[in-house]
């Protein structure tokens, strides 16, 4: 038989398992985000202890490495100045005639379905540093977003 048709094992043809990607830049978090990260570490550790298969254990250990790294590199974001949009701010704004309220948080705490966006998101970057009553550029349009209210989350 030709060497081209011989295969030692199925393992050599599997896709490589890479680590979970970590967002670039500092790992800025809110106090809530830090607690969520620590909780996730504990949750995954418990799941590893209860894992029934080696495949599940391997997948969970990969996830645990991600959360341990995020917990170890977490930096509490400085509190924004009063009435200024920053990480940890709840912002009410008007965009395209619609009024919305979002909270700006760290990467791992972001949950757009529950109105929490990461500070690195384009809208959050546009809002950062603005104060109530100001307008900011967004999507290539000057004065596209009007900041209505800013409160601490």
Entry keywords:
3 helices, Chitinase A, domain 3, 153 residues, two-stranded parallel ribbon
Structural class: alpha/beta
Order of helices and strands: EHHEEEEHEE
How would the global form be characterised?
elongated
Tally of contiguous helical segments: 3
First and last CA, distance? 69 Å
Strand order of the largest sheet: 5-4-3-7-6
Based on CA atoms alone, the radius of gyration comes out at 22 Å
Q: Percent helix among the residues? A: 25-40%
Q: What's the total number of strands?
A: 7
What is the CATH topology assignment of the largest domain? Answer: Chitinase A, domain 3
* Most strands sheet: 5 strands, mixed
Fourth CATH level, the homologous superfamily of the largest domain: Transcription elongation factor, GreA/GreB, C-terminal domain
- Domains counted in the coordinates: how many? 2
Average pLDDT across residues? 91
Which spans of ≥5 residues are poorly predicted at pLDDT below 50? none
Which CATH first-tier class of the largest domain would you pick? Alpha Beta
- Measured by DSSP, the beta-strand proportion falls in 25-35%
Oligomer kind = single chain
Q: So, CATH architecture of the largest domain?
A: Roll
Keywords: Coiled coil, Kinase, Transferase
Pfam families: GreA_GreB (PF01272)
GO molecular function, one term: RNA polymerase binding
InterPro entries: GreA/GreB_C_sf, Tscrpt_elong_fac_GreA/B_C, Tscrpt_elong_fac_GreA/B_fam
């Amino acid at each position: 038989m030709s060497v081209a048709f011989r295969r030692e094992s199925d393992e050599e043809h599997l896709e490589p398992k890479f680590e979970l990607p970590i967002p670039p830049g500092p790992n800025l978090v809110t106090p809530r985000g830090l607690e969520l990260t620590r909780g996730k570490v504990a949750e995954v550790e418990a799941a590893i202890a209860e894992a029934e298969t080696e495949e599940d254990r391997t997948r969970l250990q990969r996830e645990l490495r991600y959360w341990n790294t995020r917990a170890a590199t977490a930096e509490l974001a400085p509190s924004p100045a009063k009435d200024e949009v920053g990480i940890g701010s709840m912002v009410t704004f008007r965009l395209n005639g619609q009024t919305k309220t979002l909270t700006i948080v760290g990467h791992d705490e972001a949950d757009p379905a529950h109105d929490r966006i990461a500070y690195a998101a384009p809208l959050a970057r546009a809002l950062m540093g603005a104060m109530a009553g100001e307008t900011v550029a967004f999507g290539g349009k000057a004065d596209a977003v009007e900041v209505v209210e800013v409160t601490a989350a």
